[in-house]
Each structure stands twice: as C-alpha cells, then as structure tokens.
Amino acid sequence: MYNEKLLREATALFPEIKKNKINECKCIDLKKDGDVIKRDPRPAYESIALKKDDSIILDFEDHYVGYLSLDLGYEGAHPDSPVLLRIRFAEREIELFEDASEYKGWVSPAWIEEEIIHVDIVPSVVKLDRRYSFRYVRIEVVDISSRFSLRVNDASLTAVSSAPDEALLPYYSSNELDREIDRVAVKTLHDCMQTVFEDGPKRDRRLWIGDLRIQALVNYVTYNMNDMVKSNLYLFGALTQEDGRVGACIFLDPKPEVDDTNMFDYSLFFIVILRDYYKRTGDKKAVLDLFDVCKRQIQLASNSLDERHVVRDSDVLGWCFVDWNLALNKQASAQGIFMYALEAAIELAQCVGDVLAEEEYAQLYLKLKEASNRFLYDVEKKLYVSGAESQISFASQIWMVLGGAMEGKAAERLFDRMEACPEAVTMVTPYMYHNYIDALIKIGKKDVAHRKMSKYWGGMVANSADTFWELYNPEKPNESPYGGTIVNSYCHAWSCGPAYFLRTYFNDTKDES
Amino acid sequence: MYNEKLLREATALFPEIKKNKINECKCIDLKKDGDVIKRDPRPAYESIALKKDDSIILDFEDHYVGYLSLDLGYEGAHPDSPVLLRIRFAEREIELFEDASEYKGWVSPAWIEEEIIHVDIVPSVVKLDRRYSFRYVRIEVVDISSRFSLRVNDASLTAVSSAPDEALLPYYSSNELDREIDRVAVKTLHDCMQTVFEDGPKRDRRLWIGDLRIQALVNYVTYNMNDMVKSNLYLFGALTQEDGRVGACIFLDPKPEVDDTNMFDYSLFFIVILRDYYKRTGDKKAVLDLFDVCKRQIQLASNSLDERHVVRDSDVLGWCFVDWNLALNKQASAQGIFMYALEAAIELAQCVGDVLAEEEYAQLYLKLKEASNRFLYDVEKKLYVSGAESQISFASQIWMVLGGAMEGKAAERLFDRMEACPEAVTMVTPYMYHNYIDALIKIGKKDVAHRKMSKYWGGMVANSADTFWELYNPEKPNESPYGGTIVNSYCHAWSCGPAYFLRTYFNDTKDES
After folding, report:
1. Which tens digit of pLDDT belongs to each residue from B40-91?
2. Which of A97, A173, B129, B225 gets the highest tally of CB atoms within 10 A of its CB?
3. Torsion angle of the four alpha carbons B432, B433, B438, B444, in this order, in degrees rounded to the nearest 10
4. Which of B110, B118, B254 sits opposite A110 (nearest CB)?
5. Does the CB of B110 have a partner CB in chain A at under 8 Å?
C-alpha cells in the first residue's frame, strides 16, 4: 500500500543534515594482551613516513558519523605507482584487533567498515565518499613503491547529524554517573539522527519502528525535533505492506520503500509512537491523517487472537520481536504489547472523536486483560507463562505489567517473584532492558529502576562507551552474537532510553520542585 | 631545471581526450587446463542473478582504456546490506587465473587492476572513477545479504584516447598478416595516446622517452597528431633534471614533473625524436626552441667519454637502458646510440644554422666512429664487443650499425656473423627487437626484416593479442619477469613499431608505384 499524500508530507519534513568538521585527532598505538587493550601515544601522524606494511591509528576522541578526508603527501622520489591503502573504521578499539578477511559470522561482512583503495595521485586529497560510524581509523599502507614514502599531512572528518546541537535541552543532576549516562545516551541519539531516526549508523542505517519508539521519547526531552518524529510516522503510514500492515522498517534509498519484514509488536508500536507524539505536540491533524493506519493495525492484530482472546503463538521465526533471543517465547509479551497498544489506540480514538472505535477498543482491551489473567497466568507459580511449554520470562511479566494486565501492589509482587525465579528467561538487549526499567517505574519502584539502569548502562560507560551499544552483556562486554565485534553496532538507538528516564524521573530540578 | 615558457607551450598543446561508449560485451566462462584456456559462452549477463561467491566475466571483445559503469539491480527482497564486489580488469584472459592477493613479485601490486568496492545502494549506477586498461572484466560478488541477488542490468565502458579515429591513414597490403599486425600495432598506439604518449595504459601510464621515439614514428604514418609529439618534446625540454639532463620520463599528475631517473640512451633520444619531428613537420621554431636542450645532452654524454672517445662503462644499475636485460653489457650500445644521436644533432645544427655546433658534432662523430672500430671491435671474432668482459650481443652490433660505425656490405656481413654467433646475448623486449628490424632495413635486408617482424609480432597475434605487449618471449608467451601476468603491460607503446615499418617499407601501393 502506498499513500502518495502521506509520503509527500513525510519527505517534506526531512531534516537538514548539519556538518561539523573535526580536525583534531591523536595518533595512538594499541596493543592487546589477553582481554586488555594497552594504549600508547605516538608522535603526531604528520611526522610519520609510511612505507609498505606501515600503519597509523587515529583517535578522533569521540564517536562520530561522517566522512573521512585525508590530505596525502610523500617524501622521496616522485610517486611512480599508485598507493594501496586499507582503511578500517572502528567505533571501539577492540574492533581493530579483528581481521576482516577472517570474519565468518552470519551478518553480511559487507557491513565491515573497511575499504581497500588505490590512490593514483600523491600529493592529493582523498575524500572517501561513503559514510562511516567511528571514533578510530587505522590507515595501513598495503603497498607502495619503494621509491617513496607516504605522509598523511592532514586527516579530518566531516561529522553529520540532523540533531540541532544548539537546541539540546540541559539536564541537571548532582549524580555524576547520571550525567555521564545522559551524555552518552544523548550522543547515541545524536549520531543516529540523520535523514530519519536510524537504528544504528554503522549497520542497518535504517528507520526501524522498535528503535523509533525509544528515540522519539528521548527526542522530546532533548532535541525536540518533533517534525522528524512526524516525518518518520508518516513514512511508516505512507508505505504499509500489501495488507495495510505497518512494516518493521523503511529503506530510504534509492527511494523510500517498506521492508517486507513485519513483526506483531513492531506494527502495533506505530500506534504507541503516534500517541506519544500527539501527547507531546497536540498535533491533532497528524492523528487524523494516520488514525486509519492505526485502526488497521488493531484489526490485523485481532486476527491473531484465538477464540479465548489470547494471541496465538507462532513458530515463524521473528513473528514478534520482543528481544533478541530465539529461545524466548513471545506469546505472552505479544499479548501485553497488544494491550499496551490498545490503551494508546483508545487515547487516539478519543482525540479524533471516533466513539465507536473507542468503545470497541475498550471492550477488546478488557477481553484481552481477562484472557491474560485467565489463560496466561500460572496460579501456582503466580507468574505469567508463555507458549505451549508455559515458559516463564522477564519479558512476559514486563509486558503484562506495561499492558496493564496486573497493576499496583499486585504487579510489584509479581516482579518480586520474577526476580526470585531462577528459571525465568532473562533479557538480552538494552532494548528489552529499557522496557524493564519502564515497567519498574510504572509499578513505583523508581529506586530499583535507577539502580538497575545505573548498573547496566553504567557498565557500558565503565567500558569506555562513547555511545550506547546494540548489545551488552555485563559478563562479557566484548561478546558478539554475530561472530565479530567488527559488525556489532556500538551506537544503537534502542539503547538511548536512559536520557528519557533520567530527564523525566531522575532530574534534580524536578525532584526539588 | 624548469622552463616555464616551454612548459606553457607543452600544456597548451595537450590533446582533447575523445570518449567512446562501448555497450556491447559478451558474458563468457573461462577454464584453464594446463596452459590452455578454454572459453565457453554464457547466457547474457543481464539474465544472471548473482549470489555470494558468484561471478561473471565480461568480454568487451577488444582492448580498451577507459572507465567502467555498471547499472546494478536486484531481485528478491529490498537490499538490506551493502554489496561487496571484487572487480578485476584484464588485458588478457590469462590474468584472470592469478590471485591478486598471492602476487609477490617486485612490481608494486598497487598496479594490479583490481578493486574491492562496497555498493551501498541497489539499484544504482556504479561508475568506477579510476581508468583501467582491459578487454575482460570479472565481477565477483564477495558478499551480499542472503535476502537478495544482484543483477548487472547493463555494463558499459567509456573508452578514452586522444587518437583521432577519423584521421587514421589507410594501410594497403595484400598480405593478411601484415594487415593484422598493422591493425594491432595501430590499436596499441591508439590506446597509449592519452594526454601524452603513455608507455602503457595499464602500468606506468607515463611519458617515457624510449617509447615516445617509436610512438612518434608510428604517429606520422597513422594519426598524424604531430602537435602531440611537439607537446611531449616540449615537456621533456621544459622539465630537465638539475644538470639540464633530459629525464627518462615525465609525470603529469598532480602537475608535470620530471622523474629523477635518467639513462644515457634515453637522454640522447630526445635529439633523435626532435630530428624526426622536424623532418616530418618542418617546424623550425620547435628546433630553435629546443636546440639548446639537445646541445646540453651532447655535452653531458661527452662527459661520459674516456680519453679514447669510448663511452665509459658503468656498473650503476640502469645507467643506460638498451634492453630489459641486466646481463646485457650496455657500453657498445651506448657508443652506437651516441653516434646515432650525433647524426641527428648534426641535422638539427644545420637546421638552425649553428655552424660551430655542426662542425663540432661532425668531428666528434668521426672520433666516436673511429674509436668504435678501434677499441670496441674484436678483429678476430669480427664483432663488436662490450664491457670489460668483451661481451658479444645483438644489441651492440645493432646499435653500431644504426649509429653508422659499420655500413653497407660490411654491416651485412657483421649481421651474418652475429646471427651465427651462439654466444651472442639475444634480445628480450619488442623494444630492442624494433631496433633490430630497423637495422636490418638499414643494411638493405628488407626481406629478412619482414620475415623476422612477421614471426615475432605475428607470434603475439597468434596468441590473440589485441594490442602488442611490453614483453614477448616466443618460447613462453605467458612469461612474466615481474612474477605475474597481472602486472605485465599487454598494451605497450614500444611494441607498436611494426605499423611504422609496414607503412613505410611494406606498403603495396608504394611497392607498385
């Protein structure tokens, strides 16, 4: 399905990409001893004459998304052959210790940020035309004629983002770690803000709805680029799949197009993002424009209900995302997310004055809630269960609480039992962790939420994160489910939520007021 | 030394580069069985969906110098990762059977015509911005997401050359092989004609004086781009080395500059090229502009004479080129080449009316001639000898004859003894072979010259040469002194001489007239 009018509105709101030239970088040496990376300074790169097999590592001292430019010179005889360079970009130091040619993981190695380029003319300014996400750059002379040496006279990067630095709202806190987590979270959002809210500027580089929900929330308390949220909502609304389903992600190039992937939870989050957007902006016209899309998502999700009003489980891989965990059964989470989306849909129906829809959704919500507690709740274990094997997981409890199946003290006790349940499937991604923090705050456990957040995201900070990561396992910070850190996305939108939590719930000014 | 005025004249005469779009190419399959390459047709490339590790070989059915453009599409799901391509260009099929990553030869592997590129957006038109010299292109999908396949919808090349196709003089011959050799020789010149007369468009890509001498001769009987010869002479004249010596080659980028290499013979050939140019064009002003440069070359060469008027031998690698053969002693050849250049210098002195110089050179010539026959001629073996070890070589006899140390019937008998001398060091390059043909014609052995030329250059034609090669050993056509055919230059200017010989001496029309 393709709505030309909505698409025009979406693209008309595409933000300007701001450029920021970064000239400062340090030349460093890195050595790895077991798990420890040792860093030593090197002389200024301009002073180093590079022969075959020589290399330099440049550290731009923060994470950036942008374009690299190298001003190359030489010493010795006039260059009499091209220079062959291998240029590797890395978000974290650890990536530089992996050999791209040996990468055998399942993520496409085409994502590895490495180029092998010929430089035909030296001296010259080489501007790499691809965009990279990085802090470190290693420049290796794979080959050069023996008659001359290469010099990097100047290395600079043009960082790009649509985030308006001057408009960033301040954050007040006497807690240093909170300030640090906020700073890294905001930088994460900043670097993911390009033409759209990208999931990660290194890998995928696309508008995914799961990331957008969190990015939009952080945006409202930081850069306030609300038109960008609107643009992205209109993109999803304009480019639905054949049956009118909101797709999981949108490609921008060569022209905006929806992916053929869809996920039960992601389609429903469209409604939630629109509700959040409306609450922040009061933009009723947007709700009027997009409410039909929301209604269709409810309809499609309803088709997945069995006669008991329970979301039918599925063994289709990725039918519902929830968390990056194939062992996690998604049924109960899907039920909770449907309720969570229905609450948003009711608010939107009220907004547009669609009384029939409001009434229908309210009744459906009650049926889902009743079914949740009747069919997905294990009265003995006193925990929500999911799937044919009655799996217990953090995700199921969290989404049932966020969806309102259980509330107040009962929900608090539910969480206590969940934490004490050794068999409960735990969380894998910062994305799922975000929902956990959200649920803890919802049930009034603000202190626990803060402590958990400080520990989890603070762990990345302690591991020198400049931006928050797509995946973080506190036990194994350098773990990669893809078979190599070189394809891990270390600046990933779904991890930027702490700035939203901190600025909304853990703000000194607010506490004092 | 830097002569701004001459340089301005040189660059003002740079030719226009003509573009020619080539859309036709065949998709082929190549297999190698021992030394034999088996070629099979494949379906049209547009019909082939490429997954990871798939490749296609395109045959543009002639040698070209130019730029490749690929119109890429896909089938399957929307591309969700970049595509990583390895693109290899080859002048001959054999090159495609070598692995670039395993090349360990002494020529810089940066010359290997292979790119590894990321294509971020599909569909898109990918225009590679480097210039390549090739007939074959292999496109290999190193990596692609499993969700889609790549299609090459269109492959085209924009061939470039400054040769004016419409101005090519016709060549008449009833001899089919002569016509074929002429065609390939002209194509060789054509593809080497760019902003300057390049030695080879694949490797070096520079203006070398040794190649220029032969290119200019062929040019006069084919494209008549005489201003281009003039431009190149002015470049060498404008950009001499510190002592006023004409360098062996000129770099054009980023700005015209002389190489620090010089060779005894190459510096002297400047005079010969100017004389040839003057004889063809009558451009006396050019001779007036450049005669001082010629005089300086004679002066510098004279400094290399010992008190007997014999060119001092040297053990400096490459002090005098003559042939690509380190085992060849160059002394006697250098002596012959000095005489050869003196003859040209005398003609130029006459042209500009420099009577003193004319007289001086005439006397010097006689002294050199006398010294040649007194000190470099072995009266027992009746052959010219070179160096402390009195080495006998084809090169020494050839250059003594071309320099006029021996003439007429005596020279004819000298060549008979040379051919019959088993210890005589033979020739390695088509470049030296060119001088051999030239000398045979000079001594009146036109038929032998024709037979030798037909056999040697015809051997390349029999080996499917589209253009003539830098190196050709009839015993081992695929030999590479560089450790890999992938760095052999298979379109090399110094091999284009047959078109000059054929059109000057073996032209039916001329014979009949």
Report:
1. 999 999 999 999 999 999 999 999 999 999 999 999 999 999 999 999 999 9
2. B225
3. 130
4. B118
5. yes
